[in-house]
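User: Um, what's this?
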Amino acid sequence: MNYTDTLQAVDTMKALNLIGIEGGQSGAYIHYPCTKCEEGKAVIRAYGEKKNVWYCPECKRSGQIISLLMEAKEVPWDEAKQLLTEKAIAYPASKVTKEITITYDLEYDKYLELQGISEEVCKKLGIGRPKGKTMLSGCIAFAVYDELDKKIAYYGIRIKDGKPIFHHSFNPELYLYNFNRIDTEQEVQFTTDMLDCVKLLSIGQQAVCNFGLLYLSTTHFALLNKCKYVSFSYEIKNLDEISVQAVKNLQNFMRVLKK
């Protein structure tokens, strides 16, 4: 297994536990106390193209999970790599197989009105602020369906800071928001912003979103390759990186739209 394959194959949380580090996961990232400066809150990617790459904003150090283990255990590269592949290998990511039974009572929120998204569109798509005490309290919740139109999760965006909130059983790398509703023979707009996606839908355009991730996964490309035409906007965050990915992986017609 080469260097790149090792970084992808290793389960980040298992690796940190092996090193003796306790971290807390938030979306695609795990935050943990920096092992060097002990002041900063280092962050490491739990999945994606840069999986198992870490950075500390306080001491400005960065690296990958193998070097972190080398430093912690004082072992050479080959030994650190072997230890990770023996003790911290990840199980393949799997999609949700059963439709969820939980149903949030969603209410139309002023935040959505200010975004220019109507109550009618929210009711149609299953978007709103959950009533009562739930893990998505204080969030705008989105009902998520797989490509077979099965409801498999709720995804939340916290109103106060835009932070994504979702169950760990839901892996956003395995789905595209609204893919279940599109006509693959017609042009589909891709965006990384959930609210932008809903705005496009509200004016009758076809759109999908990758739940705010700054990259596209293998599964995302497999879904997009089912579409005859895919367009990207200049306003997409991290567009340069995504465009490079798209050129390498998209087999269909692609264009970039300037707004």
Notes: The domain at 106-257 is CATH 3.40.1360 (Dna Topoisomerase Vi A Subunit; Chain: A, domain 2). The radius of gyration is 20 Å.
